[in-house]
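User: Can you write out an input/output pair for a complex, sequences first and structure second?

Assistant: Here is one pair. Inputs:
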Amino acid sequence: MQASSGMLTKFESKSSRAKGIAFHPKRPWILVSLHSSTIQLWDYRMGTLIDRFEEHDGPVRGVDFHKTQPLFVSGGDDYKIKVWSYQTRRCLFTLNGHLDYIRTVFFHHELPWIVSASDDQTIRIWNWQNRSLLCTMTGHNHYAMCAQFHPKEDLVVSASLDQSVRVWDISGLRKKHSAPTSMTFEDQVSRANANQTDMFGNTDAVVKFVLEGHDRGVNWVAFHPTMPLIVSAGDDRLIKLWRMSETKAWEVDTCRGHFQNASGCLFHPHQDLILSAGEDKTIRVWDLNKRTAVHSFKRENDRFWVIAAHPEINLFAAGHDNGVMVFKLERERPASTVYQNQLFYITKEKHVKSYDFQKNAESPTLLSLKKLGSPWVPPRTISYNPAERSILVTSPADNGSYELINLPRDGSGAIEPTESKRGAGNSAIFVARNRFAVLNTANQTVDIKDLTNNTTRSFKPPVGTSDIYFGGTGNLLIITPTVVHLYDIQQKKTTAELAVAGVKYVVWSNDGLYAALLSKHNVTIVTKALEQVSTLHETIRIKSATWDDAGVLLYSTLNHVKYTLLNGDNGIVRTLDQTVYLVRVKGRSVYCLDRSAKPKVLNIDPTEYRFKLALVKRNYEEMLHIIQNSSLVGQSIISYLQKKGYPEIALQFVQDPTTRFELAIECGNLEVAVEMAKQLDRPKLWSRLSAEALAHGNHSVVEMSYQKLKQFDKLSFLYLTTGDNSKLARMAKIAEHRGDFTSRFQNALYLGEVEDRIQMFKEIDLYPLAYMTAKSHGLEEECQSILEASGLSEDQLSLPKLGEPLSPPKPVVPTYKANWPTKATSVSFFEKALLGQVEGLSLEDEPSASNNAFGLEEAGDDDAATKRNGLADEDEDEDAAGWDLGDDIVPEVEEGFVNVESADAGGAGSSEADLWARNSPLAVDHVAGGSFETAMQLLNRQVGAVNFAPLKPRFLEVYQASKTYLPASAGLPALVNYVRRTVEESDPRKVLPIIPRDLEYLATNDLHRGHDSMKSNKLEEGLEIFKGILHAVLINAVSSESEVADAKKLITSASEYAVAMAIELGRRQLGSTDVVNKDPKLLKRSLEMSAYFTIPKIEVPHRQLALLNAMNLAVRSKNYNTALSFANRILANGGGGKILDTARKIKAQCERNPHDAVEIEFDQFAEFEVCAASHTPIYSGTSYEECAFDGSKYHTKYKGTVCAVCGVCEVGKHGSGLKLFA
Amino acid sequence: MDPYSAEGELINIHNHFHQGQYQEVVDFDASALSSENAVPARVLQLRARVALGQAEDVLADVQGETESELEAVGALAEQALGNTDAAVKTVEKLAQEAADNSTVQTLGGTILQAAGKSEEALALLSQHQGNLEAVALIVQIHLQQNRTDLAVKEVAAARRWAQDSLLVNLAESWVGLRLGGEKYQQAFYVFEELAQAPATSSVRNLVSQAVAELHLGRTEEAQAALDQALKKEPDFADGIANLLVLNVITGRDPKEVTGSLEQVDASHPFLTDLAEKSDLFDKAATKYKARVSA
């Protein structure tokens, strides 16, 4: 039997003696009736007292919640049964009738009935709807201590101090009181009669069985939820198990162990267990099938009086002398571990299963761990070793044990592990591919063991170590109650430590850079070097955590999924209706295990934390994307941004002008501030703006603000400081106009206009001042005239000593002309993006076709759009080249010719490179194997390749990619290994080399570059690119038949482009426009070639460019008829934009005069191809030759020359066809 | 007791050497060792110095020493300096006198194999008795001769008596990279474990990790490991060679890396081999010609 260490207490209350307990079926509530007459309603999850009900007089012994209604019932020593509403928080009514203490009260599971047991020796059934007594069951001849309804059948079981347990049949009662659906008259009569004749007999409720066996009073009795079993607890300290059939009932067995009165007992709702509580201060757990003790939990001082089970979840409560405790028997956290896309976990049945996150599928049972540990103790942890495909499972049974087991490749049911290694330890985890660490807390050692379970090294961890976790390669995280240590296994010492109390779990981020340390109420994020990054506190219990790929930690509490960023910023993701253990986040899905160890997927909205993360990382593209694609607006995000110091970003979201103004001021965006101030036009805003603008030195904004505020003085001074004399003069005028003399004086002072000042003084009769001013500036005449006007003479005046006349400083720099050049406030990326200026973010992702020399004056976005449209249609574009030889006629390459040149000398084997050549009939594999001769041979046979020089770079490229150099023993050259494209393969007859720049790469990279060069008119470059593509495809391999078709498409396309570009380049080489125009022969050729340029089957948007080019040239040479045909073709190709407009215009122009001035060899109605060598037409019907590789066409006279397009193959030489797939 | 076993005195220095942490070997404080381990420790330190390119100093150091171990080290230094013939001569002499000396076996094997005398090397090495270094060398020689089958047998045999030694793990990984398939991943684990633990990380095992990644087709991870390695030692020729291969595989222009490899080690097998193949190509291409010249 195990000591009480396993008890998982979830809640405890302090009160007087608790006599009755009831769990709410849905909410985390528990009702406790006390000896002190109070009934308490607790939230055991939050640990808070919700309510108190105090109407009983004296102890309350029985309470019960109604299953569906907001009701509960209580019965007390005041003989009263009370029915309460917890919503209105009052007693609804009282049922009177019992004549002594009431021991228990219970609701019926479906009928509106209550059963009560009383010291008056009766058991009564009440209807709480019409508040009547239905039935009184007599028979016990001592106190009835407990009575309960059967959960399904019409039975009641009761226990009494008369030492008996009785089972009552109440089916008669149900019949009598069930709804009168179809009742005959006789029935009604008999029913009425029955009711009356019921005076003494108990036809409604008859004793079915009397169970005798206890030799003291029985305190409690309970039915099993599903099986025909009864358990009872008595003062004889025994727990008895009874079984019943239809006709009889008998005692099955007795559980002995309590050494004081047993006061309560019950069946575990889901497991084959019995729980009992007694006055010996213990709670005991018994195996229902073996009737042996499984656990016992002892309390120091308190006798237990009652025990109850939650109907749904794995929770129990027991009432004792000083309150109640809510507890669990076992941990419900399923042991689980995640490796890449797989979750390994242990189910309630102790089966090991895996779950694939990609397929969202559970595996069948991989392994059964039934034999591990004791049957009632679930495994605690599982650790997975991908290299060995083994698991390490720990169990708290037998004071901690671990087991190392290999997983079978694929599960096929509950297989017992064939071979396992076990040992004692409290924690066991893999620390390396072939090592695991085992912690033994009792003797405080950590052993490092190898896979054969031998200890390779052993050390003493820091004092008080309670758990160990993986700490990164070669390290352990050692958990003590107050400190976490990072321990280097090699050096046997702590390399870092961090004071975090009560850590229970450690969760590593996917990249292994961060770990989250979870304790009961705290999450601490640390780096892999155990430096604290952030920490947060939760009032509610933290259950689990997992990392998002982006470095956001999602954690679950009892009722929420929350997130935290590395900087500690956190929030709620969603609420939970049941506790789950998170294991993985992927996109919008959170994978978790619930308490029954079933994998579940929760959907979440990651927008909020992604946004915040993007903000922290300043990843504005991501932010913009989020803003555009989700409804993330509103006050919360604005205030968040502002609070976090990103007013400039918040500014982008705000519409409200006042807020915008505030934000603009905060981030110094004067433009926006001015705009908003204008809109609002409030003096307060203007003055704030002026202050801010002044600080920025932006005087024009300051000026505007002062003007708005009519602050003339400040304006004048501003003009003085900026040296704007003309405006100062105007200010003086305004002042004069306003009759504001002070202002006028000031302005005059600023302007240095002495006369004006004197004039002003005179106007306001301040002659002495006028005189003084004149005098000090040496204006004697003026002095005289003043004296005269005032009728005084100079002698009459006593003058102070005059200093130098004051003159205002002269502006050095005309500051007023412009604002000081301030450093351009860098427009954040984000703002740009919002303004649509950022490439790649706006929908128009190609700003314009650059440097378009095809005669397009303005290649607008419209053109780009048409190009894209055209490209989108790419697939529909029929590759009409008649080159496809069909695979059927490709003869198999004979094996015989393969050059086997393995040098057997010196006992050496043949290298893998040689194998490649043997394994494959593809030229590329021979190249990679370094067997160039055979590769050339193959190409010659397949496509008539004769000129290999252009292929040299490709040959060497493929060859270079084939080998790696592994540094091995010191002093010897590196070991050469061969890189395969068949990574999974180990059969030497099937291995094949890796191919750089495979088909997919070419199609996504090179082809696009080629198209771009076409668009931007870099034809030489383009020609090289397309030839490069041809060479790369020639020496290549694909993985399926369908890819062969893709490759052929690519070859054809590249070939057509190469021909087209070569024609246009040829035309340009004829000479400059002037030279060509002067020479009629050249002009003719030029026009012809421009026409041929439109023939190759290139992408429609590109062909439009060729057509436009040809059309413009034709018009310029007055070949209106030909031009008309081009215009028509352009229009027929459709699309939009500039090209079509031009074509329409030219069409109109040409239709007026559809004649050609220069006769050329181009029949717009004839079908023809262009000879790739001579760039002249090959009309359909005439014979031609072609290149067996790229399909370019030639006049017959070119037979035998090297193909002008690929530069490799001989024209007209027909081979077996290119082989890319074996 | 085997001084190289897990509890032996030499385990750390021995592991450092084979993990490619040569500087740590040189810095190892050998003064506290017991007398019978002093010579092996000195040999390891001298070998580490040779590996670090201080062959001349080493040669001067062992000048005039008569112990076979030190003579063998001298030969190794000679060879590192390019005097292969002299080195081979010394080894052949030592092979006559002290073929049962494990240092003579390993160093002799190394020198002979480097001189292209694989048969002689194998003959000398096969006389070993429980010398894991010799096993590793035999495995490497077999692999160089493309006799993967023999290498597999050798490793399997060694596994039986030295279950978990570093050298056996390494040798097994070398073989694994030849075999491919699942073995790639297992080899990767070994290299990664060494490369990513700060105590055992070295340029050589980082490069090895990268090679394993490359074979597994994980080019990005390979790139990361190589970057890490070349950051530690930018002149490590094998690292550069592998980077070059990686660049080619991922379709990037390898020109720059080729340049740096030429600078660091113009005679690296990659370059010599490539030059050879380039000539081969030119020669082979002359066999073909168009019937009509354009």
